[in-house]
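Course exercise 7: structure representation. Students receive a sequence record and must write out the corresponding structure in token form. The form below is the worked example handed out in class, using 1-deoxy-D-xylulose 5-phosphate reductoisomerase (391 residues). Read each field label carefully; the graders check that inputs and outputs are placed in the correct fields and that the protein name is recorded exactly as given.

STUDENT ID: A-19
EXERCISE PROTEIN: 1-deoxy-D-xylulose 5-phosphate reductoisomerase
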Amino acid sequence: MVVVDTPSRTRVAILGCTGSIGTQALDVCKQHSDKLEVVALSAHSRTENLVHFAHEFAVRHVAVTSEAHRGDAVLSELPSACELHTGSRCAEELVELEDVDVVLVAIVGAAGLSVSHAVLKSGKRLALANKESLVVGGDLLMPMVQPGQMLPVDSEHCAIFQCLLGENPREAHCIWLTCSGGPFYGRSLDELADVTRHDALAHPTWNMGAKITVDSATLMNKGLERIEAMHLFGMDIDRIKVLIQRESKIHSMVEFEDGSVMAHLGASDMRIPIQYAFSYPERWSTPAPRVDFREIAQLTFGAPDMESFRCLKLAEIAAKQGGTLPCVLNAANEIAVDAFLHDACTFTGIADIVEACMDEHDCQKVVSFEQLSDVDAWAREQARGIISSRF
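STUDENT ANSWER:
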């Protein structure tokens, strides 16, 4: 009889380890060190943090994805047994390591697409915290997914995934995708004209990176999540309804044909969906404080204002037209948000830039990753031109 030596702990690679999701994932790994072993980490530019985590978790492989930071002096302080990966494919190289079981893709933006593709191609579990992978390349990625291979880490999509467990997805009537409404809920379009970067970064409930926090303020984040849900759960965009839930205690709901509604409730803490992506199909002890529902005064609900928060409407248009238009939506938004964060455009200008790029695009059917790369590059250049000419 041949005895196969299986690892006692799940071996994890965390790509984007210095961001909000990455650091919370490391906290989960620390709390469950008897079950999880961190073997590989990547960072874009925060090399000092990367070196610190490499020592703390005794990882064997790290990658630096930024050309400008691959020669940082601090990298000489990596543990002697830790191998440094650089180059255009360094993140994919971590995915391909034999001693990796699960890959958390917490890279921000469209850059996560190639890595998500590499994880699915490898047959390893993908803990997906990069919604842009599916927004841009869902048509190409979803046919590759094996049952149980991809676990969504967005709190809303993790909630929907759990609400559908044991259910027939064909009996789902609609998805109620919840949203805090961001810091500007209730404001008119005119009242949003003078919003500052500082105002936009003050999210009421979630602790996230700057780009995602601005997306939450414009509601683009929810627009991207609708497209992500459309791919993940095979549901038409009109059956994925955005619901404002200011307390952020209901993370999403699924309504079935018989009128029954399954809701996922819990703390507003991203460590819970991160941990679930690592532990599935098991449930481990909570990494976050529990909610005492006797102390919640109320749960409130509302509808989003698509006229004031036009990014949500633009995402719906991109979803309905499909093809390469969501790629343009995402790329233009990334450039516009970066411009806003550097005071190069206004808050309401973000939607103007995205809409102008979408209007100029000749939409095509998605056929390859190379095509998406070309469309992404076109949209970014188009957005930069609009910013330089209008703001």
